[in-house]
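Inputs:
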Amino acid sequence: MSKIKIVLVLLVCQFFWLTMDAQTNVTGQVLSSDKGQPLSGASVIVSGDNSGTRTDADGRFSINTAIGKSVVVSFIGYQSKVVLINNTSPLLVQLDPQDDKLDEVVVTALGIKRDKRALGYSVGEVKGDDLTETNQTNVLNAMAGRVAGVRIAQMDGTMGASVNIIIRGATSLNNDNQPLFVIDGVPVLNQLNNSFQGADMGNAVSDLNPDDIASVSVLKGASAAALYGSRAGNGVVLITTKTKGGKGLGVSVNSSYVSDIPYNYLPVQNKFGTGKSGAHVFEEGENETWGPQLDDGFEAVQWNSNGQKVPLVSYPNRFKDFFQNGQTFNNNVSVSGNSEKGSFRLSVGDVRSTGIIPNTNLKRSTINLNTTYNLSKNLSVTGSFNWNKSGSDNRPNVDGDDRNNIVRSLYEKGSQVNILDLKDYWVPGQEGTKQLQNASKQNNVWFLAHENTNSFTRDRLISKVQMDWKITNEFKLTGRFSRDAYDENLESKRAFSTYGQTAGGYGITNRHREETNLELNLTYNKQLGKDWSLYALAGGNRMYQYGRSIDNYASQLVIPELYTISNGVPGTVTYNSSWSQKSIYSIYGMGSIGYKDLVYLEVTGRNDWSSTLPIENRSYFYPSGSLSVLLSKIFTMPDWVTFLKIRGGVAEVGNDTNPYALNQYFSVGPDWGTAKELYMSGSLKNPTLVPERALSKEVGADLRLFNDKIGLNVTYYVSGNKNQILGINLPVESGATSKMINAGLVESSGWEIGLSTTPVQTKNFRWDMGFNFTRNRTELKKLAEGLTNFDFASTSGLTVRTYEGGLIGDMYESPMLTVTDKSSAYYGYPILSGGGTYQTDDDPSHIVKIGNSNQYFILGIQPSLTYKSFSLSANVDWSQGGKFYSETMMFFQNNGYRTDTYSGAPYNSNEDIVAQIKDNPDAYFGKWVGGRTAEYGGFPWPTANGHLQDASFNVGVRESVDGNGNKTYVENIGGPETVWLTPFTANRYANRPFPDRNLYDATYVKVREIAVTYHIPKTWTQKIHIQNASIGIIATNFFEWTAAGIGIDPERAYKIDGGAWSHGIEYYNALPWTRSIGFKLNANF
Amino acid sequence: MKLFIIVVTLTLLLPVSSCNKFDTLNVNPNAKEEVSSNFVLTYVLANTAKTYHSLGDFGSDISGALQYIQRGTNEGSDATNHYLWVRQSWSQFYDLLRNNEIIYNTSITNKNKFFEGISLTLRAFLFGTMTDLYGDIPYSESLQASTGIFFPKYDKQQDVYKGILADLKQASAILSDPEISQYKIDPVSDILYKGSSDKWRKFANSLRMRYSMRLLNKKADMQQVGVDIVSEFNDAAAYSFISVDDDASVAYLGTTRDNSAKGGLLNSSNPPYLFKPCKTIIDTLESLNDPRLHRWATPVQRKWDYSATSPQDITVTNIFGESYNITIVPSSTHDVDTALYVGLPMGLATVDLVTYNDESSSSFTYPPERSPYISFLHSRYYQNSETYIKMDLMTYNEVEFLLAEAAETAGFSVTDPEQHYKNGIIASLKRWGITDGANGFNFSDYYSNPEVSYSSASNKLERIMEQKWIAGWLTVEPWFDWRRTGYPQFKTGPVTQYGPETPIRFMYPAPSQDPKYLVNYDAAVKDLERTVYVPTGQTADHNYSRIWLLQGTNKPY
């Protein structure tokens, strides 16, 4: 309500302000100065406000303004011109063509605006408009595919999920590889692992309101980032928020509504019901669906059939019946003003979302104030305050191992369960204490959604006070004090009768984190004579970080539905409190020399003192250097070459470690009655650590052709990370499970190519295309003395491991045990256990590599079309190659949810199976043969055991020992000696131990964003005193194609799991895909 | 204005100069580098008890090998029922040893003899259990990561045993120091013996007896490395456990998940119905009319009866007065088990587990893991804590059975095997709250059974081992005894993964892939002797390979 009031007040103010000026209509024509041709589509903007227009086919325009104002006329490929309106006579404006974009500036380290041509390294840029095209609530999602060398992936499918951003490959083996985020000079805290009780609370960078962002610069290599010091080893994302340009007061309003529509549910079979013993018996308590055939007259007692036998029928819509459409309302109002004395911009934003899982939501309110006041001509003070509050009443549990995971619970319900029958999720008469369950091992999904909630609030203030003093024309001094602090309150509730937690539970955690920076920079900028220019900077910074957390957890409650810690059952309450701090003092300097705008050389140096390192090693210095040469100015180029620059840089960045990483400390164990337990964990600390060094080299070229119709930039980089402070795993018998060491050299290398073109440009129509190509490989060059491999993760027989000299992302498994004796008649046959099942070969030297999780390349494509008042833009992301392992698919197969689990390997039932296998062994080895019923290829059981005809087997030979102790092979290929198995068992042993069975191509193409915008004609908007307005239809995640074709988004296999990378492993991270469609309104007053 | 700027500048710079604080920033406010060994002792004791107990507890691989337990549905049944044993982690052991070593090192620094004796005893206990399970293990070079030994060699099993016996002997000597009472430990922290050095000394000596007897078949080999296991045993027996009050047992508290028994609600939301008592132990107890049956299992809920004509509900009461409602169900076939207590037979095929002893197999209406035709573990196994559910590290009855065996074996100074055998049974009964004359139980009647009494046994060792097996219900020690003696003579079931015998060792944990580690690992694997049951193509690091202790002994098979 209050928001509407603000808008009304602003509208009223705006009305008075507008009526004060005497408006007049000015017409004119825009021509090119060289050829005298009219320029169609040139922009004519009244400076001081945002009103403006474009020229028509003849280069003519008409605009409402006032005498004494000026207009800015600009056109692509031409230099802009400012024209003062003296009278009402028609204007003739001639624009000079640009030989190159000399005036193009880019925000670099420490917020320094530099000419792009002077840079010896590549900086990725995203304009604020591109970020808000589809009103995505997380700025990182909107950046996906827009910057070469940057990989952005959402960690799970829920709205508000944490987003992983990796710049130029993950070169750190044991941290989350996230870049440093800096907003208007204020470093902000961000991390990837935001899990609490299995729910993802979103990373802190999602607290930002994209509507406040003017532009984002991505400093990719150490060269670009060296001035930021320790934390810049993974790159820096520099965010510049909007400030007011021009004079006067402006108000901008924009609103959007988006509906998230789930559309791609994992395909599951609906033919067979719950059980694992076979189709002859219904076992409702199980998670597997290897039970009786449904819709086939099979009768059994069901959970809700009052003890009566009823025919089992299928409910194929159990996913659709549960998920709902999510929706997001996003509203922003900003008001800004500018005068000689200063400027301000105040914005208020509000986002409210509900998720596709019932009773999940996300809220965010932001207030952002940027003000500058000019104390004198040479002295200004800037203050900015960005307050935001994010929160959710319930974030869904997405932990694959957890029975509170709604998605998993839903998938594990058999098809014979009508999910809607569970919707009233309490047992009548036992509300609050007993959930309605179809199986004792399963939580009711509605119960999970409504009762077992995980909520959070995050209250954050990013603030800054800055003073800029222009001492002389050359010297400028900037002092800045900034603080980013947030308080996070996390709560989880578990109701009575939760599986695994019958008496419920309650956890509450409070976290506070803050960082302050005190910074002083002195810059010197001077043109030395005619040919030389110098830019120099010297500065210092004091950084201080402080964090504190209090966790309380009651694993059982006394009184149901009372969620307080004091309601915990005595002895079941655990609590923990801790705080930590660290500080880094730094001094740094930078110098850039330019010669005739042809060659630029830049050097930087920085020295840090970190409190976290041993006193003798805590000071560390690192330099960088880069060179930029404008070839197109030195050599004569063909006409069509507008601009050519080559560049190169070498840089180093040092890094420290976490607080208290040097010494061994005792940990506290659970109390044993009145006795306190203390123990020493197995992680061996290291009091002699030295700083890490990230070394990065890059060369590249920027090329623009055909009057800027084509722009190309290419970069090749090598970034290494050596002396990594790394917890390496040790065999536990050494007395330690891990040791902190300085180790290794991990080196990423790759190509980044950005291409922008304007293939078509006519009077009313313009087509732009942007391409961003990324190719990265990360190699473990060297580990540490005495160590040869590094294990990242292992699950279900899969090991993600890299050997020295190998690539990050390699996956291994133990092969199947087979007859290796070439003289044997059974050479190559799998050797089965006595139980008739496949075995893995346990010899550690026999492990085989089955794939690598890295993409060959990622290509982002951004087409944009403009026709008259319509514009269409899209963002397409194509990730090619790489493998991922889906534990979800493994369980779907193991549990018989997949439609390909009706039968084993195909065979002709009219012919002898033994002969078929012997004729074509490769088609059967490693697979199961048989089926769920006779119809699906099941064999008759040799003894009547009550089963249907569903005997199945694994293919190979078994070993038998004769009376003399000699071994012989017994055929297990369907003949009389075969050990018959249930389909469940036969399938399990043929697939589950061998991860390659569920290894998939990670290639995908996603249309991440589409926006169709209509700019409402001025003639209409002016009638209601709106300067310009647009209305748009927006869609995100509109379309996705995956090579795997299994209904699982490969992007979900690249998440972080408890601080460790799960390179290419996906586990129940399988929400339905959602397509978001909505509309957006934008108006400027 | 200039002044203003200078002031602002100085203010901004001021905090940079406060360097004193900087030096102390990295002092951890949350944890200590040194603490009293009392706290570490509680950790080591609680977790040693849990780790050791879990080796033999229901659902463990060994509970299946000892035919105490079978899994009633196919959930994980391949390991328990069919011996599909996978690699076993030893990280718990080394974690405890690391912490125990801290107690030991601190005791040396602080000259605290009591802690020294305790830590030596626990070190021997932990390393001993590990070498029993795996064979060669990292021992002499282990636990030295802080000095740069990341990949300790695996010591020969013989050397490990030698070291264990030496440690125990030294512990016993230290704990018998007349001055020992001046070295205090906190009785609250010592959750095993409440600070009684006398009991710790008995424990150390009882363990010496256990390990001396463990090495009986390797007597000559041990003699060669200077260890006389007979005199070790005789020496230790002089001051060992003398009553159940000496038992090295830790009771569950049942207040938190951490200190509760595995089957209670705090640890198992779903009561552990799927773990069934095995037919072997049930039938043995039933045939001996052994009262311990009533402590450990419940009658079936539906009992077959060939003579009944219609279902009939009756109430049965066991000797402890616990009543059960059961239904007598008429049966027409003759391949059902009509006993009141029905155990699940060893090693049934997975497809036969769910429906065992149920004629109406394809149409049952109960959750399969709660088949009313098979006995459950007694409800005390579903409690967070219960009087008789304890974590036994070593018991007095084991000592008595060891003495009985020694008395029966030439060379030991112990006499009167029957008395010790009897004492062992009585001690076990007492352990389970069964005393002569109470609850209508008459020990003489029980003992007079020719299947129990010592004198009627044709094979005395087998008789001792059978009773030791019963007394060792859901502990791991009977498995080591079976390996060493071949008794009780277990018959495997119809389905086994690798052959018609029971596994005889644990596989090593998945080895580190580092070549420097593999050198040590490969050497240890080389010391193993393959039996015919190790599949072709697999390495000797297998459950069916003989460790040094069993090599050349022809035991258990």
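Residues 858 and 1065 of chain A are 19 Å apart (CA to CA). Flag for discussion at group meeting.
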